[in-house]
């Protein structure tokens, strides 16, 4: 359809440049498309505008939808479908009409012959050549596009061991097209069973750890496992002696001689047999007997009495913590709240900062501008407050702290997932922290709502108390979250840990461990609990222990951190991501790697010129070159009337040396050759802006001023092997030569240290006497690993002298 046929097809606003200028042939209204119209209405809300840009859009009519998975929506598909031709009505003359009996007889014989030939041909094809494969993604798109053979087969899958089905896993049933790949069917069922398997096992099933079989562990014939579903059905239907009850419905399996031709539809019954020994080898732990594993204990592996708290509980929809514990109100004293109430709320604006921290800004609008956003998240929201209000300051701080912990949890969980994915670790991905909003109740006439739990008298008393002028503004705060089921799984307590060897519990224990090490011991997540949703477990009401002890209610500070370290036991996930020991250095490198990818870093060069043109330094005084920089006077010979070596060209070199009088040590001048690859140095540089041609732009350059050698341990470790070889060779010579060999070895070793290292940290001259050189040498090697080797050589020399 062209633009002339549909003048409304183009997305264009009233002003030039408005809209995306897209062409939507099925668009019925002029002006902007749905997406551009939504973006135009969200100019004051960049978050909402960004969400509109990310929603999928139909290329036919321009409508948008979060659940749209294809280029066209359902209506546009119907418009694009070709109109079926009318079926012509056959006209048969009276003389050409055969009898009904004869026609039925011919039809029955013909159908039987054709069916037998098809089954025979299918059996021969399955044994000789496998059918073509189709990836799972293609199969899904194939079905979603409403194309295929038109023949559907119902597959009944059962998770089993080689001997029997696993009774804890119910029969799973799905409908597939006859052209779907059997390999893809296996992958789909493995993914579906994994959702329940992870709650009972320490890891997920991998595709190569599951074998596809007929019931009673009967192998599939030929290459049918790699063919199509229809081919699998046809080949086994034509096999002599194959148990036909595997190809009929569950109801027909109870019959004495079930026949697939007499059942309602086509059915396939399969077992997915778990290779338990292979899985145990990969995970390094025994599976429970209930899952076909070799563990002799009937209870869950590594269950601990330390986690004796119930893993599931029914939780109220409001928080139950208070300043010193929560109190359960008796029924007779409970306040009967009205069935509905009206409140005006101001939603806080949240600004994301680094490391999951947030800034809470109350300069927002009222509820009417925010509720549409909340409704998109969930149809029902829960307004949470302190179940036993203490005071308005404390209540506000507690609820705001909970929001901060949720945002910090999202940050740490994203990093944890990224680390697990990078290391290829098997973990439970079905976790997320709940969304939440912080709202302030707009109090009118000094009377908060009945649901707030704050009476008018108490509000007046706290609002106008003398001390309140020096504090933060008093607010009646609500924490708004999507409503969840009351079923709660407890993965850890505030001061206790649940030790259970199933993948969700192992994942949460490793996540808490990870938060401690990623924060370098400053914080750990505790009291992790979640409720099931269609998207997995949603975590809420989490707490943290911090060094400061002020992250929120339940923060026990150092006591909580020490209790976690004492009670935590590393599991497989902790080990595989490198947290078996206190590997702080590894976490630093990993953290730097994530924050600064190698391909995104640019080298920074710092240098200086040996000479400055005299016209740029008319008042400068010429300075001599350092003897270590210019030992042969070559640079000094280049000085002339046009170039000068002045103070701007001098680079100073220092080395940090320990000092008994100064805890921070001293900085002594040193030689430029003292610096080696691997040393840790401090660089001092100046930044200069050089005007470019035309004067419109300037170039920023760095000018090197000084280098300070802070630490050479890494360089010494690199030289250790070469030093060890020198002395090992010298010791071997002791057994066959005279003691002067050792003297020469020691002299050669000193040459390596004093020559190659150039007397690091001291101002030596060529005419230094031997005693001074040796004293300096002893000081330079004080406490180093090379000094130990030298003492061994000296001791051997003294022993040989005494023997002589």
From TrEMBL:
PANTHER family the UniProt entry points to: EUKARYOTIC ELONGATION FACTOR 2 KINASE, EUKARYOTIC ELONGATION FACTOR 2 KINASE-RELATED
CDD domains recorded: Alpha_kinase
Keyword Transferase attributed: yes
MF terms in GO: ATP binding; protein serine/threonine kinase activity
PROSITE patterns referenced in this protein's UniProt entry, alphabetically: ALPHA_KINASE (PS51158)
Gene3D superfamilies xrefs: MHCK/EF2 kinase
Limits of the Alpha-type protein kinase domain: 329-582
Record flagged with keyword Transcription regulation: no
Coiled coil regions in record: none
Organism: Tetrapyrgos nigripes
One Pfam family in the UniProt entry: Alpha_kinase
Keywords noted in UniProt: ATP-binding, Kinase, Nucleotide-binding, Serine/threonine-protein kinase, Transferase
Biological process annotations from GO: myosin II filament disassembly; response to differentiation-inducing factor 1
Name of this chain's protein: Alpha-type protein kinase domain-containing protein
Disordered: annotated span: 294-319, 759-786
SUPFAM superfamilies: Protein kinase-like (PK-like)
């Amino acid at each position: 359809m062209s633009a002339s046929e549909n003048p409304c097809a183009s997305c264009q606003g009233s002003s030039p440049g408005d809209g995306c200028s897209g062409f939507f042939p099925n668009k019925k209204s002029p002006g902007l498309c749905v997406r551009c119209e939504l973006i135009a209405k969200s100019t004051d809300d960049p978050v909402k505008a960004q969400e509109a840009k990310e929603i999928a859009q139909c290329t036919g009519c321009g409508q948008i939808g979060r659940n749209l998975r294809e280029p066209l929506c359902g209506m546009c598909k119907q418009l694009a479908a070709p109109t079926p031709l009318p079926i012509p009505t056959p006209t048969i003359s009276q003389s050409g009409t055969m009898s009904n009996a004869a026609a039925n007889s011919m039809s029955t014989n013909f159908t039987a012959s054709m069916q037998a030939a098809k089954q025979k041909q299918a059996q021969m094809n399955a044994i000789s050549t496998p059918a073509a494969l189709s990836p799972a993604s293609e199969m899904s798109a194939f079905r979603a596009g409403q194309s295929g053979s038109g023949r559907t087969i119902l597959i009944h899958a059962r998770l089993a061991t080689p001997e029997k089905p696993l009774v804890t896993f119910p029969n799973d049933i799905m409908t597939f097209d006859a052209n779907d790949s059997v390999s893809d069917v296996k992958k789909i069922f493995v993914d579906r069973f994994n959702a329940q398997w992870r709650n009972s096992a320490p890891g997920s099933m991998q595709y190569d750890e599951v074998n596809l079989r007929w019931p009673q562990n009967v192998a599939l014939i030929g290459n049918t496992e790699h063919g199509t579903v229809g081919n699998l059905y046809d080949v086994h239907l034509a096999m002599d002696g194959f148990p036909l009850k595997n190809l009929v419905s569950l109801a027909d399996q109870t019959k004495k001689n079930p026949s697939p031709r007499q059942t309602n539809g086509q059915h396939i019954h399969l077992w997915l047999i778990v290779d338990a020994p292979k899985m145990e080898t990969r995970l390094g732990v025994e599976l429970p007997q209930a899952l076909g594993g070799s563990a002799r204990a009937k209870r869950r592996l590594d269950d601990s009495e330390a986690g004796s708290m119930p893993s599931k509980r029914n939780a109220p929809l409001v928080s139950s913590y208070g300043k010193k514990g929560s109190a359960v109100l008796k029924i007779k004293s409970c306040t009967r709240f009205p069935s509905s109430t009206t409140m005006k709320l101001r939603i806080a604006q949240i600004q994301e900062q680094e490391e999951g921290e947030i800034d809470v800004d109350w300069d927002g609008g009222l509820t009417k501008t925010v509720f549409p956003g909340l409704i998109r998240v969930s149809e029902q929201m829960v307004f949470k407050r302190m179940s036993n209000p203490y005071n308005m300051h404390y209540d506000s701080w507690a609820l705001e702290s909970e929001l901060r912990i949720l945002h910090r949890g999202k940050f740490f969980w994203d990093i944890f997932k990224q680390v697990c994915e990078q290391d290829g670790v098997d973990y439970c991905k079905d976790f997320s922290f709940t969304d939440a909003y912080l709202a302030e109740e707009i109090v009118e006439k000094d009377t908060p709502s009945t649901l707030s739990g704050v009476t008018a008298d108490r509000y007046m008393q706290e609002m106008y108390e003398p001390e309140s002028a020096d504090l933060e503004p008093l607010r009646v705060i609500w924490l708004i979250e999507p409503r969840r089921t009351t079923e709660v799984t407890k993965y850890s307590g505030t001061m206790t840990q649940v030790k259970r060897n199933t993948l969700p519990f192992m994942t949460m224990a490793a996540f808490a461990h990870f938060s401690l090490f990623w924060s370098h011991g400053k914080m750990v997540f505790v009291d992790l609990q979640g409720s099931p949703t269609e998207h997995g477990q949603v975590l809420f009401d989490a707490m943290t222990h911090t060094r400061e002890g002020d992250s929120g209610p339940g923060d026990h500070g150092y006591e909580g951190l020490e209790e976690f370290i004492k009670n935590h036991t590393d599991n497989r996930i902790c080990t595989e991501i490198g947290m078996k020991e206190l590997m702080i250095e590894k976490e630093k490198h990993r953290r730097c790697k994530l924050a600064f990818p190698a391909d995104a870093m640019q080298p920074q060069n710092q240098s200086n010129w040996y000479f400055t043109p005299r016209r740029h330094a008319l008042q400068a005084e010429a300075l001599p070159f350092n003897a270590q920089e210019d030992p042969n006077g070559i640079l000094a010979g280049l000085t002339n009337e046009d170039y000068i070596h002045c103070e701007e060209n001098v680079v100073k070199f220092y080395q940090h040396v320990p000092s008994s009088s100064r805890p921070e040590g001293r900085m002594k001048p040193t030689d430029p050759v003292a610096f080696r690859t691997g040393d840790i140095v401090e660089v001092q540089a100046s930044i200069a802006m050089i005007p470019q041609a035309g004067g419109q732009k300037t170039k920023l350059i760095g000018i090197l001023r000084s280098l300070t050698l802070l630490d050479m341990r890494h360089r010494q470790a690199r030289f250790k092997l070469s030093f060890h070889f020198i002395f090992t060779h010298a010791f071997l010579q002791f057994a066959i030569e005279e003691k002067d060999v050792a003297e020469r070895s020691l002299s050669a070793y000193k040459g390596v240290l004093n020559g190659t290292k150039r007397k690091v940290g001291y101002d030596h001259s060529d005419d230094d006497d031997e005693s001074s050189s040796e004293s300096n040498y002893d000081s330079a090697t004080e406490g180093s690993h090379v000094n130990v080797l030298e003492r061994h050589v000296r001791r051997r020399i003294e022993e040989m002298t005494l023997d002589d």
